[in-house]
Write a structure and sequence with these properties.
Number of strands: 20
Structural class: alpha/beta
Number of helices: 15
Helix content: 40-55%
Length: 475
């Protein structure tokens, strides 16, 4: 990590203007293992100037030129995939095999899907006598989280490059090292000077400037709803486009037609994967009330079988959560669930008994939860599942939609029943019967889960302005 204390601005690794640094903590040991430079408003301003200067030239490059650039990036990303996975495992605690295959691998998938979508994308076409033109939105600031870091970097940077935008990225300061490797990859691929810029820093300093600066045309933000509101407020005076992918409290409806054993066990694993640190995790499991006891037994058995341990141990299913702050929040909400009368059927407070250091959380399942309980309403962002009962399908829909969020929803059961029910759920993406991830499907939320959509052709649309040239074909 030769560039950990530098920023990537205008095609070069440069020294920060200020002297502030931050230790990067290994959540498995609670010890620092690297140090990054922390940017100032002046560093962010320098990056914005570089991006603005580069926009005129890059926005006029051909589709073929940008496609070739994306293909070069994908080749180098593939070559360095395990290196990225290794550093993600170290900085956020994901099990090593999962970090390589899923955490790093999803970055490859986004570039591949963007290339495929771009090949078929019409940037300009005739509609009657009017020419419809999709032009790059401009200079984009990107503020990304720590929980799926390369996923959120790639699904923003790839379509931005594809459409001819220039950009400034501020990754999470909690898991920043993967972004530095990513910047090295873009440099090696020959991204033109100023097109991609990276400045590390915190939200109140660098993030606030990237949200409010008048030379930024669009903010693409992924993070908590609370932080998303702050970003939108900062962006409002300049009426820039604001794209947000925010929090979630996703329901997982198990229909009476479902295989209860398969549906409940998959639901538990889906919630707890990545130590529960996924905005679209199925954290509310809805089961028919007459099957509650059976569902509890399945869920408890599944949760108890999940191995919590060091990310480097091949037998580990989930590692630690990312930080002391995150650990403390999860513990507070577990205690809240107990205090409010939810039935604790697996896990519970404190670390697993065999671990005396690290931000490890026991896979926890609460049952007979009601929609007014805190653990049914707040995004916990940890390996904590709430099981709620329902009487009828209409009742299940009401419970599922009874949330300020609307990022994702899940349905298990007869395919025809599940398809019909999917139309009643107020969520941006609905997954039926544990279906595989689809990198071309639109990703984004209703309500307080954000606005706009990412992935595939939907990401391309997000980074373009639409111009109508009326009378283009008039005689």
């Amino acid at each position: 990590m030769n560039n950990a204390r530098k920023f990537y601005i205008d095609g070069e690794w440069v020294e920060p203007i200020g002297q502030h640094t931050l230790d990067v903590i290994d959540p498995a040991t609670e010890q620092p293992f690297a140090t990054i430079a922390m940017g100032s408003a002046a560093d962010a301003e320098k990056a914005i100037v570089a991006a603005r200067s580069a926009f005129a030239g890059f926005s006029e490059t051909s589709k073929a030129t940008r496609l070739e650039l994306l293909r070069r990036i994908l080749v180098i990303l593939t070559r360095r995939n395990d290196e990225i996975g290794d550093i993600i495992s170290k900085e956020m605690g994901a099990p090593l095999a999962m970090a390589r295959s899923q955490q790093a691998g999803i970055g490859l998938a986004h570039f591949a899907e963007t290339i495929k979508a771009m090949e078929a994308f019409d940037f300009d076409y005739m509609q009657g006598t009017t020419r419809i033109v999709h032009e790059p939105v401009g200079v984009v600031s990107m503020i990304t989280p720590w929980n799926w870091p390369i996923n959120q970097i790639a699904c923003k940077v790839a379509p931005a490059l594809a459409t001819g935008c220039t950009m400034v990225l501020k990754p999470s300061e909690i898991a920043p090292l993967n972004a530095i490797l990513f910047a090295e990859i873009l440099h090696e691929a020959g991204v033109p000077k100023g097109v991609f810029n990276l400045v590390n820093g915190d939200g109140p300093t660098v993030g606030a400037l990237l949200a409010s600066h008048p030379d930024i045309d669009m903010v693409s933000f992924t993070g908590s709803t609370r932080a998303g509101i702050s970003v939108a407020q900062a962006a409002a005076p300049t009426v820039k486009r604001v794209h947000q992918e925010l929090g979630g409290k996703s329901p997982n409806i198990v229909l009476r037609s479902a295989d209860l054993e398969a549906a409940v066990s998959a639901g538990v694993r889906g919630c707890i994967d990545n130590s529960g640190q996924s905005c679209n995790a199925p954290t509310r499991l809805l089961v028919p009330t007459e099957h509650m006891d059976e569902a509890i037994a399945i869920a408890a058995r599944t949760a108890d079988a999940i191995t919590v341990g060091a990310p480097s141990d091949p037998s580990t299913n989930i590692g630690p959560v990312v930080s002391q702050l995150q650990f403390d929040k999860i513990q507070r909400l577990i205690h809240k669930g107990i205090a409010e009368g939810a039935e604790l059927v697996a896990g519970g407070p404190d670390r697993p008994a065999h671990l005396n250091a690290g931000y490890y959380v026991r896979p926890t399942v609460f049952a007979r939860v009601t929609s007014d309980m805190t653990i049914a309403r707040e995004e916990i962002f940890g390996p904590v599942l709430a099981i709620l009962g329902y009487e009828t399908e209409n009742d299940a829909v009401t419970i599922a939609n009874d949330t300020p969020y609307g990022l994702a929803a899940y349905i298990q059961g007869d395919p025809a029943e599940a398809r019909a029910l999917s139309r009643k759920l107020r969520a941006g993406i609905v997954r039926l019967n544990s279906s595989a991830w689809d990198g071309a499907a639109p990703f984004g939320g209703y309500k307080q889960s954000g606005n706009g959509r990412e992935y595939g052709k939907f990401g391309l649309h997000e980074f373009t302005e639409i111009k109508g040239v009326v009378g283009y074909a008039d005689d």
